[in-house]
């Protein structure tokens, strides 16, 4: 074999082993990364951006956490702080001057609250009323925060307790009574429009509970 051919052969072998080494290194690095991420079984897509297991949480709700804790203690619902934060996340993501969207529960119309702390105090007090009227049923109280206290009375008269089906039925009833053709209520979801259930948010509870799980998972991390 000529010397030039030997050099080419040795060069090809060297490149083969180098390529193999690089591929092995990349494989080991990817394996390590997968293992590292796997050490967080309950990650939240959050301020650290770990995963997509839970919905994303805004920075604003954490900034309001001390106020939520203050008024939750004042109104006797301190054990429900994560639920209240989850409702804030669903209502506004903590944005705006009325982060709890509690104007309607205070004055019957949107926009009468323009101070975040006032919004939180009113929102917490209204939730406290809901949890009392719902006799501790958190899901019923959460949906009543969206639908109003009439939903609790409806459940007491027509149903055995909160259910998604009951929320849909109540929304349909209220939408029909308002006159769906000229209703003041607008459909927030395509599914609600198909069901003619455009009063409030028929999937408010599942959405809030999803945020609550995300919040509690992050709180566990400290």
Mind summarizing the main beta sheet? none
Mean pLDDT across every amino acid position: 81
Query: What is the tally of beta strands?
Result: 0
Beta-strand portion reads under 5%
Please trace the helix and strand order, writing H or E for each element.
HHHHHHHHHHH
Structural class: mainly alpha
Structural commentary:
There is one protein chain. The chain is mainly alpha-helical and 222 residues long. The protein has a single domain (59-221), classed as Lysozyme (Orthogonal Bundle). It has eleven helices and no strands. It has helices at 3-38, 59-63, 65-74, 81-91, 103-107, 116-133, 138-147, 150-158, 164-178, 190-195, 204-221. The longest helix has 36 residues, at 3-38. Residues 28-52 have low confidence and may be disordered.
Descriptive key words:
about 220 residues, mainly alpha, about 65% helix, globular
């Amino acid at each position: 074999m000529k010397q030039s051919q030997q050099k080419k052969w040795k060069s090809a072998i060297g490149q083969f082993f180098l390529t193999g080494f690089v591929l092995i290194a990349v494989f080991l690095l990817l394996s390590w990364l997968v293992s590292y991420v796997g050490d967080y079984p309950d990650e939240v897509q959050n301020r650290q951006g770990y995963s997509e297991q839970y919905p994303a949480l805004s920075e604003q709700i954490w900034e309001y956490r001390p106020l939520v804790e203050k008024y939750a203690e004042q109104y006797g619902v301190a054990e429900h702080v994560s639920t209240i934060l989850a409702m804030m996340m669903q209502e506004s993501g903590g944005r705006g001057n009325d982060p709890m969207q509690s104007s309607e529960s205070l004055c019957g119309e949107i926009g009468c609250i323009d101070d975040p702390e006032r919004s939180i105090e009113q929102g917490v007090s209204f939730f406290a009323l809901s949890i009392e009227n719902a006799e501790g049923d958190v899901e019923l109280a959460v949906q009543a925060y969206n639908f109003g206290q009439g939903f609790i009375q409806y459940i007491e008269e027509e149903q055995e307790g909160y259910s998604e089906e009951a929320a849909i039925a109540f929304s349909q009833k209220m939408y029909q009574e308002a006159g769906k053709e000229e209703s003041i209520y607008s459909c927030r979801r395509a599914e609600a429009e198909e069901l003619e259930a455009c009063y409030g948010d028929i999937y408010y509870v599942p959405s809030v509970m999803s945020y609550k799980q995300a919040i509690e998972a992050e709180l566990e991390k400290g």
